[in-house]
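idk why but the lab printer keeps eating my pages so im just putting this in chat instead. protein + protoporphyrin IX containing FE:
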Amino acid sequence: MNAGRSTRAETLITSGACAVPFAWLVASAATGRLSPNPIEDVTHTTGEWALRLLLVTLAVTPLRRWTGWSTLAPQRRTLGLAAFAYATAHMLTWAVLDQGLHGPSIVEDLLERPYIWLGASAFVVLCVLAATSTRAAMRRLGRRWPRLHRAVWLAVALALAHYGWLVKSDESGPFAYACVAALLAGLRFLPVPARPGRHRTPAAPR
Ligand code: HEM
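predcted complex ->
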């Protein structure tokens, strides 16, 4: 199988799995199983899944290197785009449902809760990455593409700072995510154990 391309079935399975939390949220809303503050529920669920999927995206490269399972590599794009979709839903929940797209309320909230700037900065980085995730953009950017896409680490750092700043008492959530991110970053520097018969093509670390 071509290691660089995913089959339609693989992409469908990954996309379907990524859509489960969203479907669960919609089903909970439709059956009245959300809390008395449904907007908060949607903001939290979409924010958490954006971050989780970003970390899963970053786990693909070390997993592929350690297992040699090359079929994983093309799923990185699907996972990254799913993280972007959750981040977009998260941002829109705040702008449309929470602030009613009312300019003065948005400005007031941005001034009152400065951690929103960090989330917004992470979102801008994700927009750039999503916009350059097409094959055409890869071709156009050439060797600059992997370098640009390393900015995913910047998006993760900003999202972690955003989350860490907004929690008031229990910081175990952001701390746990930060530990996972640090572990994933550290794994990139560990040498991969040699496997007999393995032909490695060095991939740009991301
Ligand atoms: C324009 C972009 C963004 C805005 C306006 C925004 C806004 C918010 C707001 C209002 C909250 C809830 C704060 C509270 O409970 O008081 C929140 C929580 C959160 N956001 Fe964002 N955010 C943005 C981008 C992001 C991005 C890109 C990520 C992740 C990649 C992210 C991850 C999270 C997480 C993990 C939480 C905490 C969820 C929880 O409490 O369980 N946010 N964000």
